[in-house]
Amino acid sequence: MEAILEKELLLPNQYVDVTDQEMEYVDGGIAVATVVGIVTVVIAASGATYGAGRVAGERAYYAGLRNSTYQKWKWQIRAAAVGVGGVAGGIFMLGFENKFYSMI
Question: What global pTM score does this model have?
């Protein structure tokens, strides 16, 4: 109890002091090049998926799909795309609907 009253710092029995040099040269984390690579791949994949949706929307329009028919099935188609493709399915549907609605 005396140590607490005297405001001394009590260290564990197995305490080992770490030198300044050990603290300064710690490697770790993620490299900037790795982050840039990941971001580039995500942007490229998203752009390709969006582009594929635009092509599909245009082809669906020229194949005879019209807005009145699409409106009846819109939510089922969206749910299926997102259910199968997840986020990529949502990006695909975004491209599909942007192109399809621009043509009607």
Answer: 0.70
